[in-house]
Amino acid sequence: MSEESQILKQRRQKAEELERLGVDLFPNDVPLPERAGAIKKVYEGYDNEALEKVEDSFRVAGRIMALRRFGKAAFFTIKDASGSIQIHIMRDRVGKDKYQIFKKFDIGDIVEVEGRLFRTKTNELTIEADRIRLVTKSLRPLPEKYHGIKDKELRYRRRYEDLIMNQDVAETFKARASIIQMLRHYFTSNGFLEVETPMMQSIVGGATARPFVTHHNALGIDLFMRIAPELYLKRLLVGGFERVFELNRNFRNEGISLQHNPEFTMLEFYEAYATFEDLMVRTEELFAQIALDIKGSTRFTYQENQIDMTPPWKKMTLRESLMEVGGIPEGELDDKEALNARLEGLGVEMGKDLVLGKYLTKLFDLLVEPKLIQPTFITHYPTDISPLARRNAKDPSVTDRFELFISGREIANAFSELNDPRDQKRRFEEQVASRGDDEEIPPEVDYDYIRALEIGMPPAAGEGIGVDRLVMLFTDSPSIRDVIFFPQLRPEGGRRSP
């Protein structure tokens, strides 16, 4: 029998012994307890003399995280959502029978304790237990305290253990919740309406990505898990809501990496009578405020790089970035054969019949993006890869669009919206006609969206912000898996563990 199996057997034997003694292993009559963190906050400045004058008894509940037994007494630490507090228990105080039951408790058990406060000889604020009972019996041991779970993939699979054992992990997810609250507050306080749009769509659209497909039995049709909410949000602009935003999930049937999870959180917002340049200013304002609230400064460290969020941020056109950062001569930027040859030299096979924008953006991904450490807006993307963006008035071959890059990765994508239904219809139809075997291009035209534009959409700009990547940035997390509670993983061994 393995060591783990032996421990599990011992735990179950203890549980059976406790039940024979009449102990309820999983009671459901525990009134809301006081928080350890709140108690410590109020009484952290009290010495023993002051604590003796406090007549109140405190009732707390939490998981046993450390336990030291000394025959007729013991010290143990319990942890709840607010923090941890030390408990002292003595046989002569709680009674022989209760203490015998306590001796069968394990690290990992959740207990309820009531007693008064005192300070130990080492000056630690402690509850002297007058009463203790088991609230939840832990039938599996926690990871060993000082070694924890070393395998990162195992930590993602068993996030519940990861959160118990690693306070920094819990703090990352608290920060995530705070960032999402900040995003909501920013937009609602600026007159935006939070909305919800369909997550299952009959026509895939709003971005270029391979979708997940499901089937609706009652309707007898295939549906697509949305890759973006864009087309529905812009329908709301047509309907008269001039500022809208949505914080919700997108799904893309693509690879998994440090930056990609098939299910991810996006913020998209749309603003009538705004341009992509207005959204640059709004994005700078929003990110700088989050930095101040989370980091206390617009300057902070991410993965050993100093990031400066102080506005204004650097701006370059896509072509300028390819020349200045990527080192590509200007004369090559309109030569598909030269660009394709350069890609082949980098070990990338793309074919020779693609639109120019595909070659330019692939070279950007390889040669420029990793070098954009400080916040940088890359603007004026080719029209042939921006089917929903408004053409630039001076140069129709490019669009009024930007992508934001920080620490070598894309964080946001925005543009002045195309609201001419004639141009939009042409672009959709051209895109579908050139689809071929490219499953990332939508398979059909969303003519209802064209109909909505024919009703009339006001001039507007819209932006999508990758919330997971934003959280990575502000929590100094190297992988998207570190900021998603339960990232998608291949099933362990192809089966469930017993």
Textual characterization of the structure:
With 498 residues, this protein is of the alpha+beta class. It folds into two domains: 3-142, Beta Barrel (OB fold (Dihydrolipoamide Acetyltransferase, E2P)), CATH 2.40.50; 164-326 and 368-489, BirA Bifunctional Protein, domain 2 (2-Layer Sandwich). Helices cover 34% and strands 24% of the residues. An eight-stranded mixed β-sheet has the order 6-10-11-18-17-16-15-14, sandwiched between helices. It has a five-stranded mixed beta barrel with strand order 1-2-3-5-4. A three-stranded antiparallel β-sheet has the order 7-9-8, with no helix packed on it. Helix 11 packs across helix 13. 30% of the residues are buried.
Short description:
34% of the residues lie in helices and 24% in strands. It has 16 helices and 18 strands.
Q: How does the major sheet shape up?
A: 8 strands, mixed
CATH class of the largest domain: Alpha Beta
Number of strands: 18
How many distinct helices?
Answer: 16
Helix content range of the residues, please?
Answer: 25-40%
Terminal CA distance: 16 Å
Tally of separate domains: 2
Residues in β-strands, percent: 15-25%
Globally, the shape reads elongated
Outline the low-pLDDT stretches.
Answer: none
* Mean pLDDT over the residues: 94
CATH topology assignment of the largest domain: BirA Bifunctional Protein, domain 2
Specify the CATH architecture of the largest domain.
Answer: 2-Layer Sandwich
